[in-house]
Write a structure and sequence with these properties.
alpha+beta; ten-stranded mixed sheet; six-stranded mixed beta barrel; Membrane_comp_ABC_pdt; ABC3_permease_C
Length: 830
Amino acid sequence: MFRLALRTLRFRKGGFAASFIALFFGAAIVMACGGLMETGIRDAVPPQRLVNAPLVVASSQSFLERARVDASLTAKIAKVPGVAKAVPDVTFPVSPLRNGAPASEVEGHAWTSAELTPYALKDGTAPTGDSTVVLDEAVAAETGKGVGDTLDVAVGGKKQAFRVTGIASAASDDRSAFFSDADATRLHGKSGKVDAIAVLPSDGVSVADLQERLTAVIADSKLAVLTGDDRGRAEADGAVGSGDDLIALSAVFGGLAVMVAMFVVAGTLGLSVQQRHREMALLRAIGSTPGQLRRMILGETIVVAVLATALAYPLNRVLGEWLLEQLATAGVTSQAIVFRQGWIPIAAGVGISLLSATVAAFVAGRGAALTRPTEALAEASLQVKWFSWVRLTFALICLAGGTALSIVTALVMSGPVAASTAGPTAMLWASGLALLSPGITRVIIAVLRWPVRAVTGLSGYLAVMNSDARRVRVAGAITPVMLATGLATALIYLQTTSAGGGSSFADDLTADAAITSQTGGVPLDVVSRIKGREGVGAVSALVDSTVIFRSGEDADDSATALGVNGDGVQGTLGINPTSGTFADLTGTTVALTTERADRMRHALGDSVQLKMGDGANVDAKLVALYEGSGEETLLLPADLVAKHTTTGLASQILVGAADGTSEASLVGALQGLISSDQDLRVGDRASLISSGGGGGGEQTGAWVNYLLVGMILAYTVISLVNTLVIATGERRREFALQRLIGATHGQILRMVGVEAVLIALGGIILGALVSAMTLIPFAYAVYDSPWPSGPLWIYLAVIGGASGLTLLSTVLSTTYVLRTPPVEAAATIS
């Protein structure tokens, strides 16, 4: 039977091509997700600039901000036996200015660390004096500067001039500028701290032995001696532990992809086998056993699946690397992490693809194989049996699970975290409805029967009769429409609703203008420069970071830390204290939302134990409480937060106008006050609100979600087109008989057009049920409303696109089928 299976592939190219496409993309997506998960697990960050140092002492922990090392440790390490040299390394952002405008950002270092790459002078001399710099070849070419020229750079939000003393070259792709040790220490701005200490071993000393000695000497749990690929973590901010987010994301996305792939493959193969019932009936009539038919169908499927997964293998790596690049660009993971994919995700992807194809083929061929020959011949052109207790059991399990998750989402979960249960809810409801779709399709056709007939006349009458008689196969076409519309609506509006629930921060802003920088941050002293000036009513810096609670019920929970100037909060952020006063936000103090304080049982005057973005422990006095849009935000003094950030700069300075001062007048006055700082810009209130009030976390998360949802939907659309083309192609003989009794091409096209509308409407109705059972509970969880947030045009675009694809696929495939002469088509077996 396996040889027969191979021969049948030659005569069933259309159906097997559709199955091949579904299996090909499914295998590629699953293997790519497996590669992303392995990448997150390995968390490999190969060194670039520190490649010449076999050992690096740096922070061993994962922090949002760069955690630094005491500079005094350098001398201690240098005395360890086997250490030839210990080189301190500092890194800080530098923006060269060209024609007064910032060029792309580069990294600044001390010249003593140039040997760690190594960089070699190609021209000129080392930067030994004040205000001198050595540029690498790429930076020199971009700025057009050579030895002896003066280069203006923006460092720490301020413009400074340096004389170029040399040009250096290196094999590394890093873009660097090297300063004298004194200048590098000053520009780094972290007195007594360095970013890492590179260690060069003496000749004949093994790296492993020296690592053990250094580890014993350090005796600090926050530091580690890094070797191999781990050295790259000392170069890249946030690289340590950034793979954790990648693991979680790839697991969720991969799980969703697997479920969709199972649906798509099962649906496509099932429909492909269903159209061969006449062939199966003839084989049964001439003596073929059910086992032989199952083996034939299984053999055909395995051949297609093996070929599809084999060709998907080279694509999956390209897809995985592209996804990692997009996620890194969006800030989800470190850009320093490299894609790693071993044999395990490949084997898993192949196994899942082959398993889904095998299960689909077994289920699809079971009915035809077990039907008696005489019954099969009678039913060959019309399938009416679909119900089984196994099918009903799984459907009820899925619907019960979806209902339970809907209740949990609405009543137990809160805020955007409710998406963790809302997403699986959509898949469970889609699964349950898909299993029951033939029965539901009968109800839908009965409901739409009279409206369709009234509007479309004879074409509608024939379309309804055909759909009712072929409801099992119509249900197979409705299912991908339901998946496309239901998943698209649910997943997209989950994101817009989540963003809408957290948008009140930008809406509550009362600032009339904001000062931002083109070079990464605004110095905090800008606040004192503009405070009290004519037209300025209130001013506050905004320093973004993250803190972790060290004690109490919220221990190990993270929260967004906003560094502000207490006396300017109410006039810029629009937040009012319910107790205490923001004016007391100075030194080591904190303001919490009332919800957070109540849960942690904190009152004014209590000490709140925090771990700052760079890992430093701080005990802050609680001086104010306020009603916040969410408990995940707390207020701290701007200088306190800045001290524990990588750059020490504010993301922006918010300014409120004084009474009687217009917004335009304020913006003009601010532009005059900062005119000497070429990298600073002033924006009005409209630009402030459109930017979300600082911080792009929501936009980043939305972008990533839309990317992943888009991939799933693209795959679902492929299934939709495949299913409709197959379903139309199997009706070749039916159309031929209609033409032989006098039907015209136009009449047949109008009939299938109405059928396509019925399929689209059925899929949209079921998709609306899936999305409603997902979004209504989620909307309640986010902001106590039954209506999801987001523009209506998104839903209209989704259902419009699904309807258009359904109609276009059906009409075009019918037009192609009608090209065959009716006598020839009527003579075909199926």
